[in-house]
């Protein structure tokens, strides 16, 4: 057993020594062009990783010759509430050898491919707390060190495997995405991260990075946990992913300042039927209206938590866990509705349209601090959603 572990760490350290020491590079001059119609940014720029694009495509990328590399230490700052997503990627030999740094369950995850050997390593503190964290990666003699906030360290000894290899050619580096087929990675994860990177210092290089967008989206100065809807999109789930049992009902819980919301918070539609349920906030009238079929109930928007329970013969809305503020609708005009909902769609932040297309209207503007369905947190990254939604953070 000890020998197997030694072989594992031996292979891992070899990949870490080579790849980590060359992967973190410099960003260049901000706001310039490159003659190919692409904007360029510098390493000191703040980059919002969740910007609209194909979810695996890098947001910014660059290429450098090995002859230009002089430093073995790089650092940057990361802020996120998102537990999962890609931060940056580097490769040599046009993708034959590669390195990926991401978050998985809130902690750093490094995946490496070197000479056909695949290694994944996870460790360090929880980083998805919404605070700025400084990450520094360095190669010091026979050790590769990942340091977080100047103290928390993940140290990997390389021993005799730190033999020198003459490196030539080009190194590609990307932030917010990867340049290989995702199936090559050992550990699969959701790539898009609702987070920000800033103050990058990458091997003391000043090489410009190309931006895969016309403009970089800004990061909010202060953030809080939640999902922010800017009034331009919504998230859709197939209700088949939720355990809906007619005997036990279907429960949705929402947290937030409803007095600061405007637009459709929830809508549910069964296949082949008219829109059956909506929850809409009106900032002008300061009311939240729940509609089920042709029946409506209105509530003042002063509450911070709303629990909606769908049962076979009753729909209940409970405000702030105050039983005296329970409102009910009898769904007698829709017998068996829970059964039909099993193959329907649930939208957060917008009004579902006709048909099965991802088309909506009356979008929500505001922050939902927390969303639970059937007692479990709802991760909007798992939905079909418009990219304008910040899935894990709201402006504070």
In CATH terms, what is the fold-level topology of the largest domain? Answer: Jelly Rolls
Q: What top-tier CATH class of the largest domain fits best? A: Mainly Beta
In total, the number of strands is 34
Shape field: elongated
Distance between the termini: 51 Å
Widest β-sheet, arrangement of strands: 1-2-15-4-13-6-7-8-9
| Count of separate DSSP helical elements | 2
Main sheet overview: 9 strands, antiparallel
Taking pLDDT < 50 over at least 5 consecutive residues as the criterion, the unreliable ranges are: 1-32, 157-163
Mean pLDDT, nearest integer? 80
- State the helical fraction: under 10%
Radius of gyration: 25 Å
CATH architecture of the largest domain: Sandwich
Q: What percentage of the residues does DSSP assign to strands (E)?
A: 35-45%
Structural class: mainly beta
Question: What is the secondary structure topology, with strand pairs?
Answer:
Layout: H1 2-23, E1 32-33, E2 39-41, E3 47-48, E4 60-65, E5 73-80, E6 85-92, E7 97-104, E8 107-114, E9 117-122, E10 133-140, E11 143-148, E12 152-157, E13 170-175, E14 195-202, E15 209-211, E16 223-225, E17 227-230, E18 235-238, E19 250-255, E20 263-269, E21 275-282, E22 287-292, E23 295-300, E24 305-310, E25 315-319, E26 326-329, H2 337-341, E27 345-348, E28 351-352, E29 360-361, E30 365-368, E31 370-373, E32 376-377, E33 384-385, E34 393-395
Antiparallel strand pairs: 1-2, 2-15, 3-14, 4-13, 4-15, 5-10, 5-14, 6-7, 6-13, 7-8, 8-9, 10-11, 11-12, 16-34, 17-30, 18-27, 18-33, 19-24, 19-31, 20-21, 20-27, 21-22, 22-23, 24-25, 25-26, 28-29, 31-32
């Amino acid at each position: 057993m000890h020998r197997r572990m030694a072989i594992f760490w031996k292979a891992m350290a070899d990949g870490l020594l080579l790849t980590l020491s060359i992967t973190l590079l410099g960003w260049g001059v901000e706001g310039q062009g490159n003659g190919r119609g692409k904007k360029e940014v510098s390493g000191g720029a703040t980059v919002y990783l969740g910007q609209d694009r194909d979810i695996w495509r890098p947001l910014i990328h660059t290429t450098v010759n090995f002859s230009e590399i002089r430093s073995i230490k790089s650092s940057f700052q990361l802020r996120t509430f998102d537990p999962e997503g890609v931060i940056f990627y580097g490769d040599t030999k046009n993708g034959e050898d590669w390195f990926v740094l991401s978050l998985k369950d809130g902690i750093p995850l490094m995946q490496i491919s070197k000479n056909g050997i695949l290694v994944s390593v996870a460790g360090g503190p929880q980083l998805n707390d919404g605070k700025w964290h400084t990450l520094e990666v360095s190669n010091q003699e026979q050790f590769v060190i990942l340091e977080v906030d100047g103290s928390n360290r993940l140290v990997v000894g390389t021993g005799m495997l730190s033999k020198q290899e003459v490196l030539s050619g080009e190194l590609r580096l990307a932030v917010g995405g990867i340049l290989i087929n995702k199936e090559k990675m050992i550990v699969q994860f959701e790539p898009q991260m609702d987070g920000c990177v800033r103050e990058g210092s990458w091997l003391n290089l000043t090489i410009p990075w190309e931006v895969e967008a016309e403009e970089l989206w800004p990061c909010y100065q202060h953030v809080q946990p939640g999902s922010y809807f800017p009034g331009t999109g919504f998230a859709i789930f197939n209700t088949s992913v939720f355990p809906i049992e007619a005997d036990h009902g279907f429960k949705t819980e929402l947290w937030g300042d409803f007095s600061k919301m405007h637009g459709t918070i929830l809508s549910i539609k069964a296949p082949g039927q008219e829109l059956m349920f909506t929850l809409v906030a009106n900032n002008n009238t300061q009311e939240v209206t729940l509609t089920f079929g042709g029946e409506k109930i209105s509530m003042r928007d002063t509450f911070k938590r709303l629990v909606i329970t769908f049962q076979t013969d009753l729909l209940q809305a409970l405000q702030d866990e105050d039983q005296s503020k329970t409102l009910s609708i009898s769904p007698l005009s829709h017998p068996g509705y829970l059964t039909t909902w099993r193959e329907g769609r649930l939208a957060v932040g917008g009004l579902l349209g006709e048909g099965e297309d991802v088309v909506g209207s009356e979008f929500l503007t505001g922050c939902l601090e927390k969303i639970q369905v059937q007692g479990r947190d709802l991760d909007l990254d798992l939905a079909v959603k418009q990219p304008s939604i910040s899935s894990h953070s709201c402006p504070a």
